[in-house]
Design brief:
alpha/beta; 8-stranded mixed β-sheet; Protein-Tyrosine Phosphatase, Chain A; about 400 residues; single chain; UDP-N-acetylmuramoyl-L-alanine:D-glutamate ligase; 7-stranded mixed β-sheet
């Protein structure tokens, strides 16, 4: 009942915002991007392809809003902004004579009617995996919420290889849907990494293919798409190597079992040659408790050493979160080690709830050839402890720890 009342409030707010800004969503071609993982990469790649092809385009991602060539902050932990912010940015894009607006769209925004008044020209679902069940309660509800984006669009694109496809196929009118993938006779199945002779992690092959299919059907020539892909750079905090000397430090936004399952083996394959993979991560509060041990299992599957730490624990006990993650590591055969002796043996983990101390510990125990991977925060600029947001950057903390450890 409380959530229904909140949704009514969001809908009324959205209606007022649409009226206030004179319904700009009807005056621009909006492209929606949703999914559990890969939204930001796919959104920015679509925008980059369109811009490279000479189109006027603005876009919003979880990192920021780029409208009329200017970048705007959208707040902490924000993907799809409030209805008034959405309509404001759409209005700005219309005044800038933009033809396209690419909008990273969450299941929450869809369920809460925050995107009311947005007319989606095309949309894409990257994948739907284990996440946000604290809000949606069941995976089926989560899929239903995501599917609304396709229902609101003239044309939709769906990853046919994803587990969610069998559910989406039953929910949606597939006449207006195109599929992409590599395993199940999809409409689009081009391996862009092979075609262009570039190195791409498996999960990005799907993101790039989805963006390729959507842009191709928008009328962008294939040669233009390929040229744009060659010059594209991943967003901040996505598989970002922030230190590369005798050991490496990589920052990535992976924060679900599926994204860890994709990111960690890719990092092992691309970056680890002689040393150990040291993984630092936690799990945010009020998202999906059941994913915590699954994330521990994924870390144990690919890391040599794991440090469980804080990640936006809000008003939840960080020790409780850490112990739930630890269940998965223990189940996978990892052993717990006290932080004072941690690092001597492989297949061990420790718990250091202060993220700064966890990063410093990883730096201190690093050896030549090691790769330290920080996941969960990526580009984010704050860390929520209790009810307060603290300024934060995994990149800055890692560089600070390196300087203190080796150059002070």
């Amino acid at each position: 009942m409380i959530q229904k009342l909140k949704n009514i409030y969001h809908l009324l707010t959205a209606v007022i915002a649409v009226l206030y800004y004179k319904n700009p969503g009807k005056k621009i071609k909006t492209i929606g991007v949703t999914g559990t993982d890969g939204k930001t990469t796919t959104t920015t790649l679509i925008a980059h392809i369109l811009k490279s092809a000479g189109k006027r385009v603005s876009y919003i991602t979880s990192v920021s809003a780029t409208v009329g060539g200017k970048e705007y902050e959208t707040g902490f932990h924000t993907t799809t902004p409030s209805p008034f912010a959405i309509q404001k940015y759409l209005s700005m894009a219309v005044k800038n004579n933009d033809e396209y607006f690419v909008l990273e769209t969450t299941s929450h925004a869809l369920d809460q009617h925050r995107i009311f008044g947005v007319s989606y020209f095309s949309s894409i679902i990257t994948n739907i995996t284990h996440e946000h069940l604290q809000y949606h309660k069941t995976y089926k509800n989560y899929v239903l919420a995501k599917s609304k984006l396709i229902k609101y669009s003239k044309r939709g694109y769906i990853n046919k290889d994803d587990i969610s496809y069998k559910y989406l196929e039953k929910i949606l009118n597939m006449k207006n849907v195109k599929t992409y993938g590599f395993k199940n006779n999809a409409d689009y199945s081009l391996d862009i990494s092979q075609k262009l002779n570039i190195s791409l992690p498996n999960f990005n092959k799907y993101n790039f293919l989805g963006a390729y299919a959507l842009c191709l059907e928008l009328g962008i020539k294939e040669a233009q798409i390929f040229e744009a892909i060659k010059s594209y750079k991943l967003p901040s905090g996505r598989m970002e190597v922030i230190y590369n000397s005798n050991f490496k430090v990589i920052v990535d936004f992976a924060h679900t079992p599926n994204s860890l399952h994709e990111a960690l083996p890719s990092i092992r394959a691309q970056h680890l040659t002689t040393g150990r993979l040291i993984h630092i991560f936690g799990c945010a509060a009020f998202r999906d408790d059941s994913k915590r041990p699954l994330m521990g299992i994924e870390s144990a599957r690919y890391a040599d050493l794991t440090i469980i730490t804080e990640e936006d624990y809000r008003t939840e006990d960080p020790n409780k979160i850490a112990l739930m993650i630890a269940e998965g590591l223990l189940k996978s055969g990892f052993r717990y080690q006290d932080e004072f002796i941690f690092g001597k043996d492989k297949k061990t983990f420790t718990i250091i709830n202060n993220r700064s101390f966890a990063i410093k510990k990883a730096i201190e125990i690093s050896k030549d050839g090691d790769v330290i991977v920080l996941t969960g925060k990526g580009h984010e600029r704050s860390l929520c402890r209790g009810k307060k947001e603290f300024l934060w950057s995994d990149t800055n903390e890692a560089i600070k720890a390196i300087k203190e450890t080796f150059y002070s």
